[in-house]
Design a protein that fits this description.
Largest sheet: 6 strands, parallel
Number of domains: 2
Mean pLDDT: 95
Helix content: 40-55%
Strand content: 15-25%
Bound molecules: D-glutamic acid
CATH architecture of the largest domain: 3-Layer(aba) Sandwich
Order of helices and strands: EHEHEHHEHEHHEHHEHEHHEHE
CATH class of the largest domain: Alpha Beta
Strand order of the largest sheet: 4-3-1-2-9-10
Low-confidence stretches: none
Radius of gyration: 18 Å
Number of helices: 13
Shape: globular
Length: about 270
């Protein structure tokens, strides 16, 4: 039987940061990345649209790319569509496959680090959905979370605007620091790009929880606990990078994340 693959799905190219971190951690795993660049940003779409786009893309990864597991690197998909995909779509369409998200593993990391008073910056959609607060309550209600919507950050990052970001970020962080949060979750695929500015504002010691650090080892942990799935995923180190729309800007973004040219293919799921 042919080897299956690990799929990594994001609304755009922000998730490549997580894909690269997974590759650095597990170069052997056969992986397919799919960024829905035709419809990015998902954060400004309706719940129905996010569900339809992500179900379509994930269906492609299962049916055309034979993925055993699809990790949705996108926080917005994790908030808007993950539960329905897992509970309604998957049991009918692909009962033996899995879809994983990023919200619960990120919160588990914050809890195991012992930070009782958690801060998070995220897109407006994530904050309004209240997904982080709801999941935290289920995991451990003795923890609290302070959420700050940061809608200007994705457009600034996507438009090469990091030089303008510091005063905006300082303003966004003010209520969280006033609430004396003990750590900061970066609740969006794009935010690891802000690390130098965040360090400048918060200092070297402030705990910043980035999904780039958390997700690769949480994925490894998941694979170890589920050897039946792990065994099906090929370990030949093959990689494919797919997008639903391609521009020169996307190639430059990929180059800046990987520090080398990677071949990006345009697909029409
Ligand atoms: N990937 C999205 C997330 O993590 C950010 C960009 C978007 O809104 O699509 O929320």
């Amino acid at each position: 039987m042919a080897d299956m693959k690990l799929g990594v799905f994001d609304s755009g190219l922000g998730g490549l940061l997580i894909a690269k971190a997974i590759e650095d951690n597990r170069p052997d795993i056969d992986m397919v990345y799919l960024g829905d660049t035709l419809h990015v940003p998902y954060g400004k779409r309706s719940k129905d649209a996010i569900y339809d786009y992500s179900r379509h893309a994930i269906d492609y990864l299962f049916s055309e790319k034979d993925c055993q597991i699809v990790l949705t690197a996108c926080n917005t998909v994790s908030a808007a569509a993950l539960r329905t995909l897992q509970q309604t779509y998957l049991p009918d369409a692909y009962p033996d496959r899995r879809i994983l998200g990023v919200v619960v593993p990120t919160l588990e990391e914050a809890i195991s680090s012992g930070y009782k008073n958690i801060g998070i910056i995220a897109t407006e959609y994530i904050v309004e959905s209240d997904i982080y607060a709801a999941e935290l309550k289920k995991l451990d209600p003795s923890f609290t979370i302070h959420q700050q919507a940061t809608p200007l950050l994705v457009p600034l990052i996507e438009n090469n605007g990091l030089k303008w970001v510091k005063p905006i970020l300082e303003d966004y962080l003010e209520p969280l620091l006033a609430a004396q949060v003990e750590c900061l979750i970066l609740g969006c695929t794009h935010y690891p790009h802000l690390m130098p500015v965040l360090r400048d504002i918060l200092g070297d010691q402030f705990p910043i929880l980035s999904q780039v650090d958390i997700i690769p080892y949480k994925l490894n942990d998941y694979l170890q606990r589920h050897p039946v799935f792990d065994e099906k995923i090929g370990k030949n180190g093959t990689k494919e990078y797919l997008v639903t729309d391609i521009t020169r800007g996307y190639k430059e973004t990929a180059l800046s994340i990987y520090n080398k040219e990677i071949e990006i293919q345009h697909v029409k799921p």
